[in-house]
Amino acid sequence: MKIFRRIAASTAVLLGAGLVQAVPQAAAAAPTRYEAENAAYVSGSTVDDNYAGYSGTGFVNTPNSAGSYVEFTVNAAGAGNAKLALRYANGTTADRPADIAVNGTVVKSGYSFPSTSTWSAWTTTTVSVPVNAGSNKIRLTATDSGGLANTDYLDFELSSTDAQVPSRPGQPSCSAITEDRLTLSWGASTDNVGVAAYDIYEHGNKISEAAGSATSKALTGLSPNTTYNLTVIARDAAGNASAASPVVDCTTSKSTDTTAPSRPGTLSVANVTANSAELSWGAATDDRAVVGYDVRSGTTVYKTVTGTSTSLTGLACDSPYGLNVVARDAAGNVSEQSNTVSFTTKACVTDGGVPSSIATVSSGWTIPWGTYWMPDGQTALVTERDDFRVWKVTKDGTKTQVGTVPNAVTTNGEGGLLGVAVDPKWETNHYVYFMHTASEGNRVVRMTYNGSSLTGYTVLLQGIKKNRYHNGGRLVFGPDGYLYVSTGEAQTPDLAQDKNSLNGKILRMTTDGKAAPGNPFNNYVYSYGHRNPQGLAFDRNGRLWEAEFGNSSKDELNLIKPGANYGWPTCEGTCDVSGMTNPKKTWNVSEASPSGIAIVRNVIYMASLRGERLWRIPITGDTENVGTATAYYVGTYGRLRTVTKVPGADQLWLSTTNCDNNGGEADGSDKIFRVSIS
C-alpha cells in the first residue's frame, strides 16, 4: 500500500543558520458519510424504515445476539486519527455496548450505546480511532445478548495526522531456541495513539513482524548454528517508526543432523561466451534432503541453485575460471566438492574498457565511507564512518588527517560520518560538504578546508530522520552546480512515498542550504520512493544514476529523473505499477547490496557489500538502457563500499568495508585499491 501522509501545520523542516521553514497543511476535508444500509452486516440483519428520522434509505437492525455486527469500509486520505460520528437509536432501557475494531483490531472495547428512549430518537456518538491511509474496515460488534442499537450511518473524518513516533522498544531477548527457530521477546513501546505493529530486523533486513499488542514473536525457518543480529522497531498506524531497540545476538542450536550430502556427480561446462557458461552436474544424495547447490570458485560462492544445472552469468570476459559445486542440506552440512572445471571466457567486445589490474593504494583504514577528489585531481578527501575522521590522500596513497566532523554520532549500524563532496568553486570559497548522523537525525553540513585542515561548521539541512540502518548518505555535485544527496527511509518505509519527507529520497539543494530552484515539488525532493540509496554518479550526458539496497529480494540500479517515483515500499525491484519507475538493472541481494558507483568511459562500476564484487554495467551508447552486467574480484577483497573515478585517468579507487558489523574484521584492516581500466 502506498501511503501519502499529510504534514501537520506545526511540522517544520530545519534549515541552515537556524531558519525554520514551515510546511503548510491542506485544509481538512468535510466528513464523508457512509450509510449503514450500504455496509456489511451479520446474517439475519434487516434494513428497516419503520421508524422516522433516519438518513438514506433505511437503517440496519441486527439480531438480538452477541456477535452481531455492522462493518463499514471507509477510505482515508492519510494515516492518523479519524473522528467517527455514529448515528444510532436505542429504544430499550438497557445499554447496547459494542466493540469497535479497525482493520480487525479492537480499538474501543465495550463502547457504550445507551438508551435514546424511543426507536425514533436518533442521536450521534463521536469516537476517535487510528486509521491507515487508504481502505479501512470499521466494525461494530455487539458484546451482549441485546445486539446492536439500530445503526443509521457513520460520518468519517480524518481529524489529524499523527507525527509522534512510538518509544524505543525495550531490550530484546531470545528463548525457546532450537536449530531452526527461536522466540524473540522485547519490552513494549508506548505511543500517543497506539502501537500498530513491531517490525523485526536482522541487520538491515526486515524478516518478520508482530502485532502491536504483542511483545514476542516466534521466528521460524532459521539455519542451525547461526548467529542472528536482531532489533525491533515499533510502528504506529500512521507509519511512524521508533528508534531501533537495543541489539541482541541469538545463536540457533547445532543441528542433530551431522551427515553431509554425498559429493555431487561429474561437473561439466558448455557454451562458454565472453560473460557466461552453462554448467551441469550429477545429483547428490542426503539422509534427509539436499536443499541446494553452491557453484563456487574455490570456496567463494558465485551462485546458489536448487537444480543440477545452471547458466552462470556475470562472468568477466577473457578471464580464466576454475569452478566446483557442493551440495548443502537444511542443517548446513556441506558435501565434498565436485571435480573442478577450468575454462577461459571469450575475448572482450567493448568500447568502454574493462578492469585490467588492481593494486593496493592505501591501507590501515577503518570503514572508509566517502571519497571525493579535489579540483586539482591530485588529492582526495576520504571519510571514516565510525570515528568521524577526514583524511587527505594523494594519488600515491599518502594520507594525512585534516580533521574531524563535529557533532557526528554512530547508530551501531549504518549511521555516522558518511558522504563528502567538494564545492566546484573550492579554489575561491574553500567549502566542503559532509552528511553525518547527529543526535536528532542526519544532517548535511558545510565546513571550510584550506588544503591542510578543516575549520568551521555550518548546518545546511537537518530534519532527515535517522535509524540504526537505512541512512543513505552519498553526496555528489551535478553538472548544474547543485548538491545531490541520497537519504534512506530510516527503517520507516512509508516515508519513501511521502513527498513532504526528506527520507527515502534523492534531494537537490543549493550550496547555502536552500531547495534548488526547479525542483519538481517546490521543496528539496528531486525523486522519491527509495529504500536506502547509496550510489550516485553522473554520466557523460549529465544524467544521474543511482544504486539502491533492496530488502530481501532485489537490489537496483536506477536512472534518476526529476519527480519520478521509484516504488518503495510498493515495489522491490521491477514491478508494473502505474506511476512508478522501474530500475534499469536488478540483482539478487546476495550478489550485490550496492553502495558506491562511478562511471568511466560510459560504463557504470558498482561496489557491492554482501556480494563482495565489483559490477561492471555498460550504458548502451546514449540511450537509457544498459548492457550485460559482469562481476570482478568476486570474494577476493571482501565487502566493497565506495568506488570513485580517478581524475585524468581511466582508473578507479575502490575501498573495502570489512571492519563494519557485517565484515567483522579488526579495525585498521580496510584498504583502498587502484583499478586500471583498459
Condensed summary:
The protein is an all-beta fold.
Which CATH-level-2 architecture of the largest domain? 6 Propeller
Return the average pLDDT rounded to an integer. Answer: 93
Structural domain tally: 4
At the first level of CATH, what is the class of the largest domain? Mainly Beta
Biggest beta-sheet profile: 5 strands, antiparallel
Order of strands in the sheet with most strands: 4-7-12-9-10
Terminal Cα separation, in Å?
Answer: 47 Å
Identify the CATH homologous superfamily of the largest domain: TolB, C-terminal domain
Task: Report strand %.
Answer: over 45%
* Low-confidence sequence ranges: 1-28
Structural class: mainly beta
Number of helices: 1
Number of strands: 51
Radius of gyration over C-alpha positions, nearest whole angstrom: 29 Å
Shape designation: globular
What is the CATH third-level topology name of the largest domain?
Neuraminidase
Give the helix level as a range of percent.
under 10%
